[in-house]
Write a structure and sequence with these properties.
212 residues, alpha/beta, TIM Barrel, binds D-xylitol-5-phosphate, binds zinc ion
Protein backbone atom coordinates (compact mmCIF):
# COMPACT_ATOMS: atom_id res chain seq x y z
CA UNK A 1 0.00 0.00 0.00
CA UNK A 2 1.40 3.40 -0.97
CA UNK A 3 0.71 6.06 1.66
CA UNK A 4 -0.04 9.67 0.73
CA UNK A 5 -0.39 12.03 3.70
CA UNK A 6 -2.89 14.82 2.94
CA UNK A 7 -1.50 18.25 3.83
CA UNK A 8 -5.04 19.46 4.52
CA UNK A 9 -4.56 18.35 8.13
CA UNK A 10 -0.98 19.66 8.41
CA UNK A 11 0.01 22.85 10.23
CA UNK A 12 -0.47 25.48 7.48
CA UNK A 13 1.89 27.85 9.31
CA UNK A 14 4.70 25.30 8.89
CA UNK A 15 4.07 23.54 5.58
CA UNK A 16 7.76 23.16 4.71
CA UNK A 17 8.46 21.49 8.03
CA UNK A 18 5.39 19.25 7.72
CA UNK A 19 6.34 18.09 4.20
CA UNK A 20 9.87 17.29 5.37
CA UNK A 21 8.51 15.47 8.41
CA UNK A 22 6.21 13.13 6.47
CA UNK A 23 8.88 12.66 3.80
CA UNK A 24 11.34 11.51 6.51
CA UNK A 25 8.63 9.42 8.15
CA UNK A 26 8.28 7.26 5.02
CA UNK A 27 5.44 8.86 3.04
CA UNK A 28 5.39 7.54 -0.52
CA UNK A 29 3.49 10.48 -1.98
CA UNK A 30 2.46 13.94 -0.76
CA UNK A 31 -1.25 14.67 -1.32
CA UNK A 32 -2.33 18.28 -2.04
CA UNK A 33 -6.03 19.10 -1.63
CA UNK A 34 -6.85 22.07 -3.82
CA UNK A 35 -10.28 23.59 -3.04
CA UNK A 36 -11.93 26.63 -4.61
CA UNK A 37 -14.99 27.34 -2.46
CA UNK A 38 -17.28 26.45 -5.41
CA UNK A 39 -16.88 22.77 -6.19
CA UNK A 40 -16.52 22.16 -2.45
CA UNK A 41 -17.46 24.40 0.50
CA UNK A 42 -13.86 25.18 1.54
CA UNK A 43 -10.85 27.06 0.17
CA UNK A 44 -7.24 25.90 0.49
CA UNK A 45 -4.35 26.85 -1.79
CA UNK A 46 -3.27 27.06 -5.42
CA UNK A 47 -0.24 26.21 -7.59
CA UNK A 48 2.09 28.69 -5.86
CA UNK A 49 2.02 26.63 -2.68
CA UNK A 50 2.76 23.43 -4.60
CA UNK A 51 5.65 25.17 -6.37
CA UNK A 52 7.08 26.55 -3.12
CA UNK A 53 7.12 23.11 -1.52
CA UNK A 54 8.54 21.28 -4.55
CA UNK A 55 12.14 21.99 -3.51
CA UNK A 56 11.72 20.36 -0.10
CA UNK A 57 10.76 16.84 -1.20
CA UNK A 58 11.47 14.46 -4.07
CA UNK A 59 8.39 12.37 -3.31
CA UNK A 60 5.53 12.10 -5.80
CA UNK A 61 3.43 15.29 -5.65
CA UNK A 62 -0.18 14.15 -5.93
CA UNK A 63 -2.51 17.06 -6.66
CA UNK A 64 -6.23 16.50 -6.05
CA UNK A 65 -8.23 19.28 -7.71
CA UNK A 66 -11.59 19.93 -6.08
CA UNK A 67 -12.33 22.95 -8.25
CA UNK A 68 -14.69 24.12 -10.97
CA UNK A 69 -13.24 24.65 -14.44
CA UNK A 70 -10.21 22.43 -13.81
CA UNK A 71 -9.18 22.78 -17.47
CA UNK A 72 -8.15 26.38 -16.75
CA UNK A 73 -5.66 25.43 -14.05
CA UNK A 74 -4.02 22.08 -14.86
CA UNK A 75 -1.15 23.69 -16.77
CA UNK A 76 -0.21 25.84 -13.76
CA UNK A 77 -0.18 22.80 -11.48
CA UNK A 78 1.94 20.87 -13.98
CA UNK A 79 4.42 23.78 -14.09
CA UNK A 80 4.39 23.92 -10.29
CA UNK A 81 5.79 20.39 -10.18
CA UNK A 82 2.77 18.10 -9.86
CA UNK A 83 3.47 14.46 -10.79
CA UNK A 84 -0.16 13.29 -10.62
CA UNK A 85 -3.12 15.57 -11.33
CA UNK A 86 -6.50 14.19 -10.33
CA UNK A 87 -9.69 15.89 -11.47
CA UNK A 88 -13.28 15.19 -10.52
CA UNK A 89 -15.54 13.48 -13.03
CA UNK A 90 -18.33 15.74 -11.69
CA UNK A 91 -16.37 18.94 -12.42
CA UNK A 92 -16.21 18.66 -16.21
CA UNK A 93 -18.36 17.55 -19.12
CA UNK A 94 -15.27 16.83 -21.24
CA UNK A 95 -13.30 14.38 -19.12
CA UNK A 96 -11.49 12.77 -22.07
CA UNK A 97 -10.28 16.17 -23.35
CA UNK A 98 -9.11 17.12 -19.86
CA UNK A 99 -7.22 13.85 -19.37
CA UNK A 100 -5.55 14.31 -22.75
CA UNK A 101 -4.46 17.80 -21.67
CA UNK A 102 -3.02 16.53 -18.36
CA UNK A 103 -1.05 13.81 -20.13
CA UNK A 104 0.23 16.27 -22.76
CA UNK A 105 1.70 18.33 -19.90
CA UNK A 106 3.78 15.30 -18.85
CA UNK A 107 1.75 14.40 -15.76
CA UNK A 108 0.00 11.20 -14.74
CA UNK A 109 -3.77 11.59 -14.81
CA UNK A 110 -6.32 10.59 -12.19
CA UNK A 111 -10.10 10.86 -12.09
CA UNK A 112 -11.99 11.11 -8.83
CA UNK A 113 -15.61 10.38 -8.04
CA UNK A 114 -17.70 11.61 -5.10
CA UNK A 115 -19.53 9.16 -2.81
CA UNK A 116 -22.80 9.59 -4.75
CA UNK A 117 -21.29 8.94 -8.20
CA UNK A 118 -21.36 5.33 -9.46
CA UNK A 119 -18.10 3.71 -10.64
CA UNK A 120 -19.53 2.67 -14.01
CA UNK A 121 -19.34 6.28 -15.29
CA UNK A 122 -15.58 5.64 -15.47
CA UNK A 123 -15.76 2.57 -17.69
CA UNK A 124 -14.91 4.31 -20.99
CA UNK A 125 -12.15 6.48 -19.55
CA UNK A 126 -10.19 3.74 -17.73
CA UNK A 127 -7.86 2.91 -20.65
CA UNK A 128 -6.70 6.55 -20.74
CA UNK A 129 -5.93 7.19 -17.09
CA UNK A 130 -3.36 6.13 -14.50
CA UNK A 131 -5.48 6.29 -11.36
CA UNK A 132 -9.00 6.50 -9.99
CA UNK A 133 -9.56 8.27 -6.68
CA UNK A 134 -12.57 6.98 -4.79
CA UNK A 135 -13.78 9.60 -2.33
CA UNK A 136 -14.83 7.87 0.86
CA UNK A 137 -16.17 11.11 2.39
CA UNK A 138 -17.91 14.08 0.77
CA UNK A 139 -14.96 16.25 -0.26
CA UNK A 140 -14.22 19.54 1.46
CA UNK A 141 -12.92 18.78 4.92
CA UNK A 142 -10.54 16.54 6.80
CA UNK A 143 -11.52 14.44 9.77
CA UNK A 144 -14.87 13.14 8.48
CA UNK A 145 -16.29 9.67 9.02
CA UNK A 146 -15.42 6.96 6.46
CA UNK A 147 -18.43 5.99 4.30
CA UNK A 148 -18.53 2.18 4.51
CA UNK A 149 -20.10 1.56 1.09
CA UNK A 150 -16.88 2.88 -0.48
CA UNK A 151 -15.36 -0.59 0.01
CA UNK A 152 -17.89 -2.12 -2.40
CA UNK A 153 -17.21 0.66 -4.91
CA UNK A 154 -13.50 -0.18 -4.84
CA UNK A 155 -14.27 -3.88 -5.40
CA UNK A 156 -16.53 -3.04 -8.33
CA UNK A 157 -13.90 -0.73 -9.81
CA UNK A 158 -11.18 -3.37 -9.43
CA UNK A 159 -13.41 -5.73 -11.41
CA UNK A 160 -13.82 -3.17 -14.23
CA UNK A 161 -10.10 -2.35 -14.19
CA UNK A 162 -9.06 -6.01 -14.38
CA UNK A 163 -10.67 -6.07 -17.81
CA UNK A 164 -9.92 -2.56 -19.10
CA UNK A 165 -6.67 -1.53 -17.36
CA UNK A 166 -5.09 -4.04 -14.95
CA UNK A 167 -2.30 -1.66 -13.88
CA UNK A 168 -4.78 1.06 -12.81
CA UNK A 169 -3.98 2.55 -9.42
CA UNK A 170 -6.96 2.81 -7.09
CA UNK A 171 -6.66 5.51 -4.46
CA UNK A 172 -8.97 6.04 -1.51
CA UNK A 173 -9.39 9.38 0.27
CA UNK A 174 -11.36 10.27 3.37
CA UNK A 175 -11.57 8.77 6.84
CA UNK A 176 -8.73 6.31 6.21
CA UNK A 177 -7.09 4.85 9.32
CA UNK A 178 -5.65 1.62 10.72
CA UNK A 179 -9.28 0.54 11.34
CA UNK A 180 -10.24 0.24 7.67
CA UNK A 181 -6.92 -0.11 5.82
CA UNK A 182 -6.99 -3.92 5.68
CA UNK A 183 -10.41 -4.11 4.10
CA UNK A 184 -9.44 -1.36 1.65
CA UNK A 185 -6.41 -3.34 0.60
CA UNK A 186 -8.43 -6.53 0.21
CA UNK A 187 -10.93 -4.61 -1.94
CA UNK A 188 -8.12 -3.71 -4.38
CA UNK A 189 -6.93 -0.27 -3.28
CA UNK A 190 -3.21 0.55 -3.77
CA UNK A 191 -2.85 4.15 -2.60
CA UNK A 192 -4.18 5.39 0.75
CA UNK A 193 -4.60 9.11 1.39
CA UNK A 194 -4.76 10.00 5.07
CA UNK A 195 -4.92 13.45 6.63
CA UNK A 196 -6.12 13.62 10.21
CA UNK A 197 -4.99 10.06 11.00
CA UNK A 198 -1.35 10.94 10.21
CA UNK A 199 -1.12 14.63 11.12
CA UNK A 200 -3.27 14.14 14.20
CA UNK A 201 -0.89 11.53 15.59
CA UNK A 202 2.19 12.36 17.64
CA UNK A 203 4.34 9.88 15.70
CA UNK A 204 4.03 10.30 11.90
CA UNK A 205 6.27 7.30 11.19
CA UNK A 206 4.21 4.98 13.34
CA UNK A 207 0.98 6.19 11.73
CA UNK A 208 2.36 5.81 8.18
CA UNK A 209 3.81 2.36 8.97
CA UNK A 210 0.47 1.19 10.32
CA UNK A 211 -1.11 1.88 6.91
CA UNK A 212 1.55 0.08 4.88
C1 LIG B 1 -11.22 15.71 1.59
C2 LIG B 1 -9.82 15.62 1.06
C3 LIG B 1 -9.00 14.63 1.78
C4 LIG B 1 -8.88 14.90 3.25
C5 LIG B 1 -8.80 13.59 3.96
O1 LIG B 1 -11.94 16.60 0.83
O2 LIG B 1 -9.82 15.27 -0.30
O3 LIG B 1 -7.73 14.44 1.18
O4 LIG B 1 -7.75 15.66 3.58
O5 LIG B 1 -8.73 13.83 5.32
P1 LIG B 1 -8.99 12.69 6.39
O6 LIG B 1 -7.95 11.64 6.15
O7 LIG B 1 -8.82 13.40 7.69
O8 LIG B 1 -10.37 12.19 6.16
ZN1 LIG C 1 -7.80 14.62 -1.30
Amino acid sequence: MLVAPSLLSADFANLQKEVEAVDNAGADWIHFDVMDGHFVPNITFGPMVVKSLRKYSDKVFDVHLMIENPEKFVEEFANAGADFITVHQEATVHIHRLITLIKSLGCKAGVSINPGTPVNVLEEILPYIDMVLIMSVNPGFGGQKFIETSVDKIKKLRGLADKAKPELLIQVDGGVSDKNINMLEEAGCNVAVAGSYIFGSDDYKKAIDSLK
